[in-house]
Amino acid sequence: MTGFSYQLYSSRKFPPLGATLDMLAEAGYAQVEGFGGLYDDLPALKAALHANGLTMASGHFALDMLESEPERVLEISRALDMAAVFVPFIAPADRPGDSDGWRVLGARLERAGAPVREAGLVFGYHNHDFEFAPTATGDTPMALLLEGGPSLKWEADIAWVVRGGADPIAWIEAQGDRIVAAHVKDIAPTGEKTDEDGWADVGDGTMDWPAIMAALRKTPCELFVMEHDNPGDDRRFAERSIAYAGGLA
Q1: CB of 235 within 8 A of CB of 11?
Q2: Count of the separate structural domains present in the chain
Q3: Is a pLDDT exceeding 50 seen at residue 179?
Q4: Cβ atoms of residues 173 and 215 within 8 Å
């Protein structure tokens, strides 16, 4: 592991983007991960990345965009030289209510990712906590998604696995062959950092990152993406987290 990526969603409340990229380059990041509206002005985004010596190795794209505008997704990913495309979230109204529904959703993701895979890119799904809440029959939605989508890769958001009540090491060991990327984030001790939704800078929380990283090294995971869903200060988060994570390499 020679460098870390940074999910730009972490800095969405701290514009402009150019200043964010400057800060990340200074902090020692090599890559970033994109999302949503950042793709609206591709030439400007590409120029800003280039000016700071950064690459956008991966990007988040909504499932409905992949289904309705696959060529646009490929246009964006090619323009930015992405290696991987991930579906980041399933809205509550679209989440299945039973085990069969989660398998069907996995198959839907499999179909949506076909053009991406055919273009030579990695295609996968990024989890939150709800995929680990058992169905009425006791099944785990994350396992059902992967069952329904046999080619589907996994961008494992490890802290969300923990918030979902699951054992991250057990999941890494069980599904490691699917893991191609991981979000590196941390959870504050109970009752702390409530103004930041209970998240912490990496290394400043309760996650056992030395053990988790050791487990991830045994998988095909190549992208390690720093993320904080609601930092009070994105520079503080970015700098402290990469300083800590560098010791895990």
Answers
A1: no
A2: 1
A3: yes
A4: yes
